[in-house]
Design brief:
This protein is mostly helical. It is 74% helix and 0% strand. It is built from 8 helices and no strands. The radius of gyration is 16 Å and the shape is globular. The relative contact order is 0.15.
């Protein structure tokens, strides 16, 4: 499915960039930067494929790791690490949001391909979208962003539900996936800048 491949590539690039920015903020060395970028970009997909009883794509193809290395090289050349409060920059917010929506879509599509029910589709989308970031944050001794950020995981869940419903009415195609991506990305960015949160217990 072309839509799945495109979303996977876009998500990998976007999350590799956000992983790079977090790693440089914490002043990791080059190996640490690669590990943080790799986990952020590909960790969720590895867990997704394992749950779906598939050989992880990153273990059978060179493209995912090549994309991560390419993003790191690009980010170093253009000195994207020389930013103050890097996680509040436009580059980080946009790349992280693109990764979130792209991987929510790919996770949901893989769930549909292996005939999961709506719960399975949602969980696979969520794991794909936030699994790598959780691994990175645990490695760096940080509270995972999915537990604190503006509707982060919620938007992934909503995206998966929409994909599942579109499949039920046989409307999964490149145009509908593009619309889901645009709407989901817009929702995430609005939620971030408006500081929307789920209710918290005081």
């Amino acid at each position: 499915m072309i839509g799945l491949e495109i979303a996977d590539i876009v998500g990998t690039i976007a999350f590799a960039l956000s992983g790079f920015m977090v790693a440089t903020r914490d002043r990791l060395d080059l190996l640490g930067i690669f590990i943080a970028s790799f986990l952020t970009a590909l960790g969720g997909g590895i867990v997704r494929d394992t749950i779906a009883d598939r050989i992880p794509f990153v273990f059978s193809h060179l493209l995912p790791t090549s994309l991560v290395i390419g993003v790191i090289f690009f980010a170093i050349i253009f000195k994207l690490y020389k930013k103050n409060e890097i996680e509040n920059t436009m580059y980080f917010i946009i790349s992280d949001s693109i990764g979130l929506i792209s991987f929510s879509i790919t996770g949901a599509l893989v769930g549909l391909m292996v005939d999961f029910n709506i719960f399975g589709v949602v969980m696979l989308a969520l794991v794909t979208a936030v699994g790598g970031g959780i691994m990175r944050d645990i490695l760096l001794n940080r509270v995972p962003v999915v537990l604190t950020s503006e509707l982060y995981g919620t938007i992934s869940i909503i995206t998966a539900i929409v994909i599942f419903l579109l499949n039920r009415i046989n409307q999964i195609n490149n145009i509908s996936l593009l619309l889901v991506f645009i709407i989901g990305l817009s929702f995430r960015l609005i939620a971030y800048y408006k500081k929307w949160h789920l209710p918290k217990l005081d």
